[in-house]
Amino acid sequence: MRIAHYRKLRHLTQRGLAERAHISYSMLTKIEQGDRPTSPATIAALARALQIPVAELTGQPYLSELQQDQLDGLIQPVREALDVYDLGVDPEVAPRALAELAAHAEALCAAVREARLRDVASQLPGLITEVTSAAHASPSAEAWTVLASTYRTAYDVTTKLGFADLCAVALDRMAWAAERASDPVVAGVRQYLRSLAYLRAGQYRTGERLVTLGMGMLQQADASRERDVAVGQLHLGAAVIAARAQDSGSTEGHLSEAGRVAELTGPAERVHWLSFGPTNVVVHRVSVMAELSQYQQAVSAAADVVIPESWPASRRSHHLAEVAHAQLWIGQNEAALRNLQAARAAAPQQTRYHPVVRETVAGLVAARRAAPDSLANLAAWVGI
């Protein structure tokens, strides 16, 4: 286990690490032995106690699987495209018309929501380079906004594939472009995405501060449905952060406010591609119940959730993975396996690189003396 490896490097006993991470000694021993599933909150707590990034414990990025899927070679071009942001006009690039570039950027946003990561990663570097040159050649709010959108997509792709360092660079570039576009809504959305990065790292207080900062930025925007959607999504992000920090009161407050906003906006999945709306609020309620270790309540609530056919495949797959993880904790192993298979069918490229999926599959394998072929195949596919 990676946990035991880093614990020994830090010269810590199991009891010593458990005390540092504020978890029980018995839980840690079972986790290290592979007899108990772990939650994202526990992994984050252990990473903080060991003073290492969460990715060191999860093993991200999953390089061997990326190589098998021929995705590893697509990351370096994205990195290089992000590096030319301030170099001005590229004399070797002949950009298309801005309207065409904007349409291409929107198409990639949609493709990310359908979890077509290979397609997006292969097209993105060229688009970033082209829009960068166009924005420098003819600066305008629209041009900088399109560039911010390409950086947002770079964040989405690198996050889903496990490159935390590169997603941080993409967010910095998004802030740079949003400032030039003078668009407070884009700036607020960027703070929401940044808060999620700190959520994944287990730095909840910083995540909460970023949500507050994002709310302040949105107050500078003119009243609009677009602004309301961003505000609502920030409340959903804040609810998950509060739940991860075990603050049930703040969690409920943010969920209630998000629900109020969703009643005003209605379904707004395509507004900044945040998937916001009434469905996203109820899905987040399931998520925060699981974060608060209310696994039975989460599974019961999920049974009443109706996901529209039009909902993005990536979001539907993520929800199914979270429900499967909750089902594992209450011993509904067959149901958990079915939901994992449904998540894979909805968004295979995303599911394969989802850390919660790996933790759930590992827990299912550990719970079975002899894994059925369906579970064994899934385990092999995700790299366990």
- Mean pLDDT value: 95
The gross shape turns out to be globular
The domain count comes to 4
Write down how many β-strands occur, each being a DSSP E stretch of 2 or more residues. 0
**Radius of gyration, whole Å:** 21 Å
- Given helix and strand content, the structural type is mainly alpha
Largest sheet: number of strands, sense, barrel closure: none
H/E order of the elements?
A: HHHHHHHHHHHHHHHHHHHHHH
- Proportion of helical residues: over 70%
Q: Could you give the distance between the termini?
A: 12 Å
In terms of per-residue confidence, which ranges show pLDDT below 50 for 5 or more consecutive residues?
none
**Tally the helices: what do you get?**
22
Describe this entry's structure for a reader:
The protein has about 375 residues and is mostly helical. It folds into four domains: about 1-65, lambda repressor-like DNA-binding domains (434 Repressor (Amino-terminal Domain), Orthogonal Bundle), CATH 1.10.260.40; about 70-180, no CATH class; about 195-290; about 295-384. The protein contains 22 helices and no strands. It has helices at about 1-10, 15-20, 25-30, 40-50, 55-60, 65-70, 75-80, 100-115, 115-135, 140-160, 165-180, 185-200, 205-220, 225-245, 250-265, 280-290, 295-305, 315-330, 335-345, 350, 355-365, 375-380. Helix 8 packs parallel to helix 10 (about 140-160) and helix 18 (about 315-330) packs antiparallel against helix 19 (about 335-345).
